[in-house]
């Protein structure tokens, strides 16, 4: 499960970087008063979803790769400066945009009903990748146990608030049907007679997307490095350059994959597949939190372990049943009257009958098991709003991960763990902690 989760995190970063790179081309075209497709090559021999080749996106990714390879500290400083500029551009968009607000645009507040809201929420996870990159910087953090939770929660709260305000501003500026899919804010200012403002917005968007790509490049390389250290991936990916202190091999490999995806794949496909991967990972994290909080090897009794497994399975099955019925688009409410209470009962049983086996030392998720259980249910429910083709692509990727793990990764990591155990035993003998083996034993 850890390997599948890690593989999907890598997929998330590659797809997210590719999507942002293609969006970079769109805003660059807007800055030059051109249509985005004029900067793309239309390969008619390829499938429609993969026929708009984007060389500019590839060039941007290559430049980001070079910068990420040179220096992690330099990348962080550059990112810090750009983030300050980006906040200024965001404030400009909000203030200038609200001067052109028209509340009439919000009268049809839910044009697609509840299903439209949840379908949009599922794809909206496109905007929530990158927060977990904070955790990959633990080696560069002075006090990770304190600083990383603050960084995660703080950045997520600020970004969520700004995202909501920007969305409201955009919808007040232009009717939802007139929002441009390639460069929404720039085109919105142009439509409202502020043609000069679209250049500021396009510049800010390019700067913001450059920052996202840089953070993604640093984060995804760290993920791959940690996986390679276990030998589940080729160990040469874990090598760190002695002068720059950066994982050069991992950075180049990940950004090469990102560039290939960005060159071929349409933004709509990327956003849906990215949302599946992200929602799946968030669900896995919530499950792992329950396991970590309620189970300790050698301490948790068999009875408590079985109760924990039963409760988690019930939470998952009830959540999947709710999402499946929602995805079928049936009108009856009766199944929900069964699946939702089943989730509630399973969570209540976990809370009442299974004792927690581990307490967090410094910082921990509150309201366990209710909060992680709700996270499981919400993430699975949102998965029910994504199209079937995206699930097929996700299934092929996950199947490929399992094949690699079973035939290569599992054996390589087992051999590595045995070698490490032998080294540890040899050190104990050398230090006189244990007696050396005798009679060949």
End-to-end distance: 36 Å
The largest sheet has its strands arranged as 1-2
Compressed to H and E, one letter per element, the order equals: HEEHHHHHHHHHHHH
Please give the count of helices: 13
DSSP strand count: 2
Uncertain segments: none
Beta-strand content: under 5%
Biggest sheet, in brief? Answer: 2 strands, antiparallel
Shape: globular
Which class best fits the helix and strand makeup? mainly alpha
Helix content: 55-70%
C-alpha-based Rg, rounded: 24 Å
Round the mean pLDDT to the nearest integer and report it. Answer: 85
Description:
With 441 residues, the chain is mostly helical. The protein contains 13 helices and two strands; from the N terminus they run αββαααααααααααα. It has helices at residues 2-31, 55-70, 72-98, 113-124, 144-173, 184-191, 197-229, 248-264, 267-294, 302-328, 334-353, 370-383, 388-430, and strands at residues 41-42, 52-53. It has a two-stranded antiparallel sheet. The longest helix has 43 residues, at 388-430. The radius of gyration is 24 Å and the shape is globular.
């Amino acid at each position: 499960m850890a390997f599948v989760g890690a593989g999907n995190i890598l997929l998330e970063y590659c797809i997210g970087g590719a999507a942002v790179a293609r969006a970079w081309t769109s805003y660059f075209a807007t800055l030059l008063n051109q249509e985005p497709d004029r900067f793309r090559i239309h390969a008619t021999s390829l499938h429609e979803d993969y026929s708009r080749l984007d060389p500019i996106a590839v060039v941007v990714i290559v430049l980001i790769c070079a910068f990420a390879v040179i220096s992690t500290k330099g990348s962080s400083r550059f990112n810090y400066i750009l983030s300050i500029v980006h906040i200024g551009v965001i404030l400009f968009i909000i203030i200038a945009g609200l001067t052109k607000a028209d509340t009439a645009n919000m009268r049809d507040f839910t044009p697609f009903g509840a299903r439209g809201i949840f379908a949009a929420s599922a794809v909206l996870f496109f905007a929530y990748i990158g927060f977990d990159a904070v955790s990959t910087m633990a080696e560069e953090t002075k006090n990770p146990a304190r600083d990383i939770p603050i960084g995660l929660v703080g950045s997520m709260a600020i970004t969520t608030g700004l995202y909501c305000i920007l969305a409201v501003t955009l919808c007040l500026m232009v009717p939802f049907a007139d929002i441009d899919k390639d460069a929404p804010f720039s085109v919105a200012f142009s439509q409202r007679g502020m043609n000069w403002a679209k250049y500021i917005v396009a510049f800010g968007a390019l700067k913001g997307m450059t920052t996202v790509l840089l953070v993604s490049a640093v984060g995804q390389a760290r993920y791959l490095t940690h996986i390679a250290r276990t030998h589940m991936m080729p160990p040469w990916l874990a090598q760190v350059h002695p002068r720059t202190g950066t994982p050069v091999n991992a950075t180049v490999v990940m950004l090469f994959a990102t560039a290939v995806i960005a060159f071929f794949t349409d933004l709509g496909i990327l956003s849906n597949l990215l949302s599946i991967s992200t929602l799946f990972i968030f669900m896995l994290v919530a499950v792992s939190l329950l396991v970590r909080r309620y189970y300790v090897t050698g301490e948790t009794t068999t009875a408590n372990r079985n109760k924990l497994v039963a409760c988690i399975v019930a939470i998952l099955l009830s959540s999947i049943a709710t999402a499946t019925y929602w995805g079928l688009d049936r009108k009856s409410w009766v199944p929900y009257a069964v699946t939702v209470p089943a989730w509630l009962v399973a969570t209540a049983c976990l809370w009442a009958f299974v004792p927690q086996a581990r307490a967090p030392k410094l910082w921990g998720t509150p309201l366990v098991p209710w909060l992680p259980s709700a996270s499981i249910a919400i993430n699975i429910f949102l998965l029910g709003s994504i199209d079937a083709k995206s699930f097929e692509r996700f299934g092929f990727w996950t199947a490929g991960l399992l094949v690699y793990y079973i035939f290569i990764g599992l054996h390589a990591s087992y051999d590595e763990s045995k070698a490490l155990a032998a080294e540890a035993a040899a050190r104990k003998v050398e230090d006189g902690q244990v007696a050396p083996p005798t009679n060949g034993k």
